[in-house]
Write a structure and sequence with these properties.
Elements (H helix, E strand, L loop, with lengths): L2 E2 L4 E6 L5 E7 L9 H11 L17 E4 L1 E2 L2 E2 L4 E6 L6 H4 L11 H8 L16 H15 L5 E9 L2 E2 L8 H8 L9 H16 L6 E8 L13 H9 L5 E6 L10 H4 L3 E4 L2 E4 L7 E2 L2 E2 L4 E7 L9 E4 L6 E4 L10 H22 L5
Helix pairs in contact: 1-4, 1-9, 4-9, 7-9
This protein binds flavin mononucleotide.
Length: about 350
């Protein structure tokens, strides 16, 4: 299933080592501004180029819009855009066809889709597919802006190094500080330590994971659909499609298990002309509907599975034990590049629910 959303319908296409990767978006209201420069700069945040800490795969990722766009705005028809895959080297992947990488999609994908499936570069399981998510998120962001909704994601931890981030830091400031370092964290005190954790792992032929936090302010009270399409359900559904996401928590999340109701409940007050809560353990969601407080969630990104040190696997043709050395170009940590992806997916989920709930006409 390569599509997501009911009213703002995002479909990703392409593969890691095919000619291109991209996206179509059906349902962009006519006249919605499409900020090509903003989308290109989001694509640049996703790219490894210039990042000392990332994969050596070099891609320009130049946005090519094919349809649905006229003079800076949506023309109301199907939006379609892609970027070319330039830096494709097949050789390293041919070798792992029979010896699946531990931790990657190779084994179940081959059983499900057969030996002929194009898993070169990870095929459709590659992080490269997230290019389309970033493009769709850029359009969604322009739709959300007039509603006063702003989404920002950042690195909360890498390899056990935790950032300290105040709950009420304004989104614009968070965004600004996060852009100042290679690990996309708003806590400059720990940015260097996070970088060290990544470089240490790389030196050991290994990798590290971490946690991305996402916050959305200005979400209108009541956004979300009843029961199976609760705000949490739809966000989690879309977030888990991002490769390497292994856990999601909203608000107090897993810590809620150790709290009492009196501590976890967020007291209501009337302030600044509206209902607010004095704490936000709910993460801005009650009953699957937005409360109007900031939506707050954290996503665990696992350590990159393609590591340089030898790993144990099995030869699928002979069933003999095998030792695998992965030689492709891989990030020792996915977290910094996934920040913009999480932000983008959050934006298009909110755009879809805003359309479904009649918050946008
Ligand atoms: C932006 C991004 C870049 C990624 N880069 C790599 C990579 O270089 N090497 C790798 O093994 N996995 C990478 N991944 C993760 C794999 O695609 C993912 O772990 C794999 O498809 C298995 O899926 P799962 O981890 O969700 O189970 C990346 C993911 C993202 C979001």
């Amino acid at each position: 299933m390569m599509s997501f959303g009911e009213r703002f319908r995002v479909t990703v296409f392409g593969t890691s080592h095919g000619p291109e990767v991209g996206v179509t978006v059906l349902g962009v209201p006519e006249g919605t501004p499409i900020d090509l420069i903003g989308i290109q700069s989001d694509l640049d945040r996703r790219r490894p180029v210039g990042r000392r800490l990332a994969t050596k795969r070099q891609e320009e990722d130049v946005l090519v819009v094919e349809s649905g766009y006229r003079e800076g705005r949506s023309d109301g028809s199907l939006f379609r855009a892609h970027v070319r895959n330039e830096d494709v080297r097949r050789e390293p992947y041919d070798r792992i066809a029979d010896t699946p990488r531990p931790g990657h999609a190779d084994y179940p994908a081959r059983v499900r889709f057969g030996a002929g499936a194009d898993l070169s570069g990870g095929g459709i399981f590659s992080g490269r597919m997230t290019v389309g998510l970033v493009i769709a998120g850029g359009i969604a962001r322009s739709m959300l802006a007039p509603l006063g909704i702003e989404v920002v994601a950042f690195t909360r931890s890498i390899g056990g190094v935790e950032a300290t981030v105040s709950e009420d830091q304004p989104p614009a400031q968070l965004r600004h500080v996060t852009a100042q370092n290679e690990v996309a964290t708003p806590d400059p005190e720990v940015a260097g330590k996070m970088e060290e954790a990544i470089l240490d792992a790389r030196r050991d032929g290994d990798s590290v994971g971490g946690v991305i936090e996402v916050r959305a302010s200005g979400v209108p009270v009541g956004l979300g659909e009843p029961f199976f399409d609760s705000l949490e359900s739809v966000l989690a559904h879309a977030w888990f499609a991002i490769p390497a996401v292994k856990a999601v928590e909203f608000g107090a999340g897993f810590a809620a298990a150790r709290m009492r109701g009196s501590e976890h409940n967020d007291p209501f007050v009337w302030a600044e002309g509206r209902v607010r809560t004095t704490s936000n353990h709910a993460g801005g969601i009650l009953g699957g509907l937005a409360t109007g407080m900031p939506l707050v969630a954290r996503l665990t990104i696992k350590p990159t599975s393609s590591i340089a040190r030898p790993q144990q696997t099995v030869n699928l043709a002979t069933h003999a034990p095998a030792t695998l050395v992965v030689t492709g170009r891989h990030d020792p940590c996915i977290v910094p590049r996934a920040v913009v992806v999480v932000e983008s997916v959050t934006a298009f989920v909110l755009a879809d629910l805003a359309l479904r709930g009649g918050f946008v006409r």
